[in-house]
């Protein structure tokens, strides 16, 4: 439904035009949205299997785990649509833009009246709180925020790199070959980042870890790096 919707598709396309073509940032379009959605749902699933209750379920804004997952899914797809206006404050802009879209799409899924409003606000909160310095107030939001930070492998940076972007963000992203989500023992979520150059650490320091720290699920996450010369825990 989301990818077949003209407005959603065009906003994601415009997000990439603004971010990649004009600003030479990494991918912020449909591919990024898919990756974030998949990772967010995987993180949420791991947390639930480790007896971490979704906040929307605890507070009654969602009636079951499927609705909690729906919040994460919708927010994953919409979290970057604010880039279709401008990169600056795109999380805040995107949250506002999502309101009318959610008012139109949620009735198609059977949500109306107060049920629609509750889920809509949860999605809007999640979009807004993907901003680095805004703290997530729900587990679902935290899963999306961390998932957003996990999309940092080289494929996402190739277009800006080919366009001539040679700053530390591009070079460090090119150094990261893969990111894996595993189930841990000490903490439920283990993130393993594979890199062939130590420059990739910049992505962790400047992108992933700041998002983890304001995700609200930081106590459930640990990060490891694997490179030809090093295999070590990076966070906490």
Automatic annotation (TrEMBL):
Residues 25-162 form the HD/PDEase domain. It comes from the Archaea. SUPFAM superfamilies: HD-domain/PDEase-like. Pfam families: HD (PF01966). This is HD domain-containing protein. It comes from Ignisphaera aggregans.
